[in-house]
Write a structure and sequence with these properties.
By secondary structure, the protein is an all-alpha fold. It is built from 11 helices and 2 strands, in the order E-E-H-H-H-H-H-H-H-H-H-H-H.
Length: 216
Amino acid sequence: THNNNTKHAIMSVYTQAEVTASIEGFNTMMGLPEGTRLPMIVGIANNSPVTQQAMTHLWGTHLKSKLLPAEERELVQLATSYLNNCLWCVKVHELLGSTMKIDKADLRETAQGGLPSVNKRHRAIVSAVRKIYLKKGDLNADDKALLEKDGLTHPYLQEILGNMMVMMTANFSNHLNGVAEDPKAINEAVTILTTALKISDSLKDEAVWAFLKGGK
């Protein structure tokens, strides 16, 4: 039996060693210290370390992208998390995005379900996410032509979709495991990431920070 720091106690055929190995694989991929325990990752691994390993592999592979830089992948993940109503991932990826070359207004607009208004390229990236998501990938010629005008040719759309798939696993797992809207789990994740990755308290003056600290 494993306890995943969510609402559920899990009976599993997997050993604790297999669970731990899948968590540490994620930590290594993300550059987190050994022993880091993010609620989302623990929740997935305790239920199915093979699912966790598959997500880590897909996520890690996309870190090697020659098309989408880190800030564009972050916007894809943030926009996807909003569409899937995963508050945990929205807040975590807004925090991570605040350390990258993303305009603060664009970051906040994406986190609130809008389109970036400052950076045209970032607006196109988020627009592509929304079109792919809402149309389940079935973009017509006009959709593709508009996106191509902004430099998003078919290879870019394919990698955007790949990053969306990573987040869909994360988002849906958070809902399944009861951490998607849990303020305690969100705050725990933010505390872990700000410490482990040496992220400054860049959102401390934002309204969202009050929520992360347990307010409304």
